[in-house]
Design goal:
With 478 residues, chain A is α+β, with helices and mostly antiparallel strands. Chain A contains 18 helices and 18 strands. Chain B has a two-stranded antiparallel ribbon. In chain B, strands 3-4 form a two-stranded antiparallel ribbon. Classes of the chains: A alpha+beta (478), B mainly alpha (295). At the A-B interface, helix 1, helix 3, helix 11, helix 17 and helix 18 of A face helix 1, strand 4 and helix 12 of B.
Chain lengths: 478, 295
């Protein structure tokens, strides 16, 4: 008799065995829901039976540690809510996917330029009614900062940290070059003159060793210069791109002139030799670049990697025909914001946490640790005096200036900015004339805006996507 | 159908069910959904709205789309033939009686085991215009090296050199194919008076032609989908180098950075159709060029 098992018998055994093994594996190692799941009440793991909120934030290192201190203070301040601080890279993209998937965190730390797009898509909960319940009002914020919190007349975001962008310069290099370290350049002409004196090359002139002002460093705000030449790159009222405006083209011509002076064959390898921004090889700290545009957080890098570094801070220079007014400087206000996403399970608890972070002592704790100004209108006496950033007054000056501006508040800003960056690279490398490059960019950028307007109309939101907020226009002066 | 036959039938279905369920849920359903999204305006956090062929028409007028198409096509046109020739040549050298051939084979294969991102980071330093080893070596022989990662003219050569670094897997497959060529064919060729080059041309290449076809097809698919390496190497704080901007990078940006999933889906479908068309074309062309031993 043939006692050999058939293939079918073997298969059945294997199948049943496999399924049983999979079941046991799932029971032992499978996902857990319930007590410490997202937004659930948590009996353990630090929650102590409290509502657990997941807070996604982009900050790491000292910035993350400072926010963790605020979170710890909140968790210690009451027994109902426990906030988990979760560092999330590429936060704009991951939040988008999480909200679309219906599984968002409870609080997200976004960039202010994310707000219009998220708000238009209905991905955020408005704070107009929720925030005042917890004692937070728009008037609590500094004038300039207030603008980035809102879009289309609604309040969407609280400000976790705010910065304004200014000129940081190497005082020692200034002195070496025969410049007065106490008199930073106030106009583009003065900036160029200082750059000429600060320029240091190899003996044969073939290599750059130090430059004065170097536009592509750090390269985060390639679109900035138009504002310092008296223009802007976006008109929210007409939802128009202004890349080819006379002011922007003039600004690009200024940049191209610097590129010609430095010569691409010298400036390209020079740029390649820059170390990572967040290290002691930062080209400003190593002395390769003597003047840069930066935010107040730079002081933290100085403290961490070059405590003896002697720097000065001033409003960035203005172009020809634009008044250099130290009492009313031109400057970008860039902020990090806290939002409650659509689908959040505990909006009130999330708002309670956000309101806690906006208390004066918490805002100042965070701001001091980040070397930034407090985003709030009211500032304690010792905050400015004891601030770790010696240029904090300049940053506050920009906050209060009527000529300060915020990033264009349009849903397509990221795409416009990416294209701007790419186009500016071509101008910097002298591959295209400023006028031609900006004309091309204008056509493309207007295409992005028009398409977004069409989409908005299809969705019944009306055309323009640029926000008009509290009397101030997005992408313009605040 | 009797009970026994039905049981056998059901058992068969049971065995293939993991693939059927997996493919349906994770492949066919997403493909169907992406086809629907490609015909919609779908910003990811809002529901899709039907726009017909709008996304496909938009590609025609999108200069960035044509730039990434050109970059990707150029990269494929240079990289695929070069990698194929290099892999076959290396395999032919290593398949012979060479001392330490196993060691050489391992050395050639090793780079394919390095994660792409790590490999890209290393190459970034090698190609660095100021401190890079490649330019240091060039300088030692009196050549002023270019800024590989910045200069638009040198981005393509940089990508091609890096793609050559990853030919190890193809080399191993070619070596196996070469070792499978019957020795008597070479003996017959020698008796006919054929030299080494003509033996390679008339015997070796036809015998390994099915493997070449397979490798060229997989290489084409991978090359047209290139993403990780240029994403790491050509994205800087001051923007992506336009010369290092490739199709899948732009597709990803549209989907997850600009929130234009409809347009990204349309791009994905165009990419799929192009790859399918090229693969089909290669099969058609290969009918006259590929020699199958059993046929």
């Amino acid at each position: 008799m043939d006692t050999k098992p058939s293939i079918v018998d073997l298969g059945r055994r294997a199948a049943v065995g496999g399924l049983a093994a999979a079941g046991v594996g799932f029971a032992l190692f499978g996902p857990r829901t319930g007590r410490d799941g997202q937004g659930q009440r948590n009996a353990g793991g630090g929650g102590g039976g409290r509502v657990v909120l997941n807070y996604w934030e982009k900050w790491t290192r000292h910035e993350g540690a400072a926010m963790q201190r605020v979170v710890d203070a909140f968790n210690a301040s009451q027994q109902r809510i426990f906030v988990r601080y979760l560092v999330t890279a590429d936060i704009g993209q991951k939040s988008l996917v999480a909200i679309a998937g219906g599984d968002p965190p409870d609080v997200i730390g976004l960039y202010s330029f994310n707000v219009p797009g998220y708000a238009d898509a209905g991905a955020l909960l408005p704070l107009d009614e929720l925030a005042p319940k917890f004692g937070l009002n728009l008037s609590d914020y500094a004038t300039g900062v207030r603008r980035v919190t809102s879009h289309r007349g609604q309040w969407w975001a609280a400000v976790s940290a705010a910065g304004s962008i200014a000129l940081y310069y190497n005082r020692r290099a200034f002195a070496e070059a025969g410049l007065d370290p106490d008199r930073p350049p106030a106009t583009i002409a003065e900036l160029d003159a200082a750059s000429a004196k600060l320029l240091r090359t190899s003996a044969d002139g073939g290599r750059l060793e130090r430059v004065g002002f170097f536009h592509p460093e750090p390269g985060w705000w390639s679109w900035l210069w138009a504002y310092h030449f008296g223009g802007r790159i976006y008109d929210p009222a007409g939802d128009r791109a202004l890349a080819d405006s006379a002011e922007n083209v003039r600004a690009m011509e200024w940049m191209a002139e610097t590129a010609r002076v430095l010569r691409p064959e010298r400036s390209k390898p020079f740029r390649e030799g820059f170390g990572n921004y967040f290290t002691d090889a930062n080209p400003f700290l190593t002395g390769k670049v003597a003047m840069i545009v930066q935010g107040p957080w730079l002081a933290n890098l100085v403290g961490a990697f070059a405590p003896q570094f002697d720097y000065g801070v001033a409003p960035f220079a203005v172009g020809p025909g634009v008044a250099a007014d130290p009492a009313n400087p031109i400057g970008l206000i860039d902020t990090d914001v806290l939002v409650i996403p659509r689908g959040c399970r505990y909006p009130e608890a999330s708002m309670e946490f956000i309101a806690f972070t906006q208390r004066q002592e918490m805002a100042e704790l965070l701001a001091a640790a980040h070397c930034k100004p407090s985003p709030l209108a009211k500032v304690s006496e010792g905050f400015v005096a004891g601030h770790p950033n010696r240029g904090i007054g300049v940053h506050y000056g920009i906050f209060g200036s009527s000529r300060a501006f915020v990033p264009p508040q349009t849903r397509v800003w990221q795409q416009y900015k990416d294209d701007f960056d790419t186009t500016v690279q071509r101008v910097w490398r002298l591959e295209e004339t400023p006028a031609a490059a900006m004309a091309g960019l204008q056509t493309r950028a207007q295409g992005y805006l028009d398409r977004a307007a069409d989409e908005a109309r299809r969705r019944g939101r009306g055309g323009a996507v640029g926000g008009v907020v509290g009397g101030a226009v997005g992408g313009g002066r605040v | 159908m009797n009970w026994r036959a039905l049981r056998r039938e059901l058992t068969g279905w049971l065995w293939v069910s993991p693939w059927l369920v997996g493919a349906s849920v994770f492949m066919f359903l997403p493909m169907g959904m992406s086809l629907w999204y490609s015909l919609s305006d779908y910003p990811l956090i809002e529901s899709p709205i039907w726009t017909g062929m709008g996304n496909y028409q938009r590609m025609m007028d999108d200069p960035v789309f044509w730039r990434v198409v050109r970059n990707t096509a150029l990269f494929g046109a240079v990289s695929i033939p070069l990698c194929t020739v290099a892999a076959v040549t290396l395999a032919a050298l290593l398949a012979g009686r060479v001392r330490f051939s196993r060691g050489f084979q391992a050395a050639v294969f090793l780079p394919t085991l390095v994660p792409l991102v790590a490999s890209a980071m290393v190459w970034m330093w090698l190609f660095n215009g100021e401190y890079g080893l490649i330019n240091r070596v060039l300088a030692a022989v009196g050549i002023d090296g270019p800024t590989w990662l910045v200069d638009a003219r040198w981005v393509l050569p940089t990508m091609v050199i890096m793609s050559l670094w990853g030919i190890g897997q193809s080399v191993v497959i070619y070596i196996a194919a070469l070792q499978d060529v019957p020795e008597q064919l070479y003996e017959a060729a020698r008796l006919d008076g054929l030299g080494a080059v003509r033996r390679f041309w008339h015997v070796t290449l036809p015998m390994i032609s099915p493997v070449i076809l397979f490798n060229v097809i997989t290489l084409t698919i991978n090359t047209l989908q290139v993403f990780a390496v240029p994403y790491v190497m050509f994205r800087r704080p001051d923007g992506t180098n336009p010369a290092g901007h490739y199709y899948t990078m732009y597709l990803y940006e549209n989907a997850f950075v600009y929130g234009q999933m409809g347009y990204a889906s349309a791009m994905a479908w165009v990419q799929l159709l192009v790859i399918l068309a090229l693969t089909g074309l290669m099969f058609v062309v290969s009918r006259r060029m590929v020699h199958y031993r059993g046929s």
